[in-house]
Amino acid sequence: MQDTSGAVVAFEHVTKRYGGQDAAPAVDDLSLVVPAGEVCVLVGPSGCGKTTSMKMVNRLIEPTSGRILIGDDDVMRLPAVELRRRIGYVIQQVGLFPHLTIGDNVAVVPKLLRWKGPRIRERVEELLELVGLEPAQYRDRYPNELSGGERQRVGVARALAADPPVMLMDEPFGAVDPIRRDGLQNEFLRLQKRVRKTIIFVTHDVDEAIKMGDRIAILQRGGILAQYDTPAAILANPASEFVERFVGADRGLKRLSLGRVHDLDLIEAVLVRAGEQRAEVRVRLDRAEELTYALLVDERHRPLGWIDQGDLRGDGPIDPSAATPGAPTVEMETTLRDALSALLGSSVQLGVVVDERGGVMGLVSVDAIGERLQSPVRAADGQLHEVGEAASAS
Amino acid sequence: MDWGWIVRNLDEIGQRTLEHVLLTVIAIVIGFAISFVLALLIRRMSWLEGPIIGVSGVLYAIPSLALFAFLVPFTGIQNPLTAEIALVSYTILILLRNILAGLASVPREVIEAADGMGYTPSQRLWKVELPVALPVIVAGLRIATVTIIGLVTVTALIGLGGLGYLIVDIGYRRFFLTATLVGSVGAVLLAVIADRGFVLLQGVLTPWARRRTEG
Fold it and tell me: Is A61 on the interface with B (CB under 8 A)?
């Protein structure tokens, strides 16, 4: 991975038992590698050992056997306190220090590392800006004066303060209401594009895992790794019945969330303007085999409505008032799931893809989105896999 | 009300007030030091909590008169040590309970965050847990101080007493109401001043806790 400040994190046969050797393991022989700069989501039902696995990375919990490596360092060979100062840590309840200002909260780890005053001030400023909190407005306030979402952003800034190569995030958006959660997730993904940390992210929410993860590790009760792969590969080919049930019966729809309109080959639209001759448009529409509709546009290429073959009978110019309005418009960045939903709601089942100024770029069809679901999926090992039978049946 | 007596005895009244304050401050300082050490001990060895709270509860329950009666044969009358042993033993239950309650009030996620970011155990105690516990600890100091200001008057029975001397030795024994009033009002004023003082101190030390109620 180019351009990353992250480090590889590797679990090697890691087992954790609470109690003696006979106790049932909380984490059972876990081996997985998180490439530098990627987000690995640990997901599973309660009691699957996802939080335990995460906390073994910064030794809040110590493994019974096996090794965890960050880069080339075995975490058990480093002093715990030193190790933790090199790992960002974000938890669901945030855990800001109530007696410190926002600025001092962000400065906590740099101070533990004995950075100089001016360097700390500069870094605090930079981080508050990075997470979208105006430093002059927030630096001197106390945590109890902030909203839940603002506090969580401070929590992320605090975790990033000493520029750690690895971040651990334990259900960071779990306490935020669903609407603001979506916003915080998007914001975090944009942030991650810039900082490129190696992130281990724990959640119990499959949808969040699919959205946030470059890779997903699905754990099942008893700390057994059920599948570790890209979200697309897991949704296309669940490794077991457990995974299939865990990701849910709407797996096909979830796969649609992974794709964007720009992943599709757009259909070229037959564009017509008011005043064009019907006979001429008939010829053009006949040549476009897939289409039975022409699209009426205004002088700036913005869609006005569909012209069907009935409107094209006879001679003379096109009558703009005959156009059927209501063509759904989507953008290149729209997820396929949202695009499909828009298309199914319209009578024509064609979507108009528009650019940021509203001009027509092409068309998408329900069929094209359906075909996309059948295309092979690239797994984490780089191999292409056909979509499994279970996937097409669902 | 004999105003002339008050004017003639201003020196005496001032002296007794100072003695009252001194007896109180010494009791609170020593009581806090002992309670703090006990609290840290209980943090390390939680099984000690029951026995220590039990003993300090018994001390708190002994009537002050009885305690003086026990102590005087060993430490003597008019000895501040006799008074302080009694006074300190009353502060411990209040102060210890509040220190423990303060430490227990630190949110779990704050402790987890401190551990996760690499605080050593002693850094966590001094820079996170105690500061966050401070409002509850100061509240304990406030209650203990007001209680002790009242109790100091009783030490008049062993020849000390601060303002209590005016109440008992002059007012009660010589049936002189003015002295009783001066002593009582003085003690109440001291208690009110101490109480307001701690409220102010609270606000200065923990601005973050005060803004919670405003916001």
Answer: no
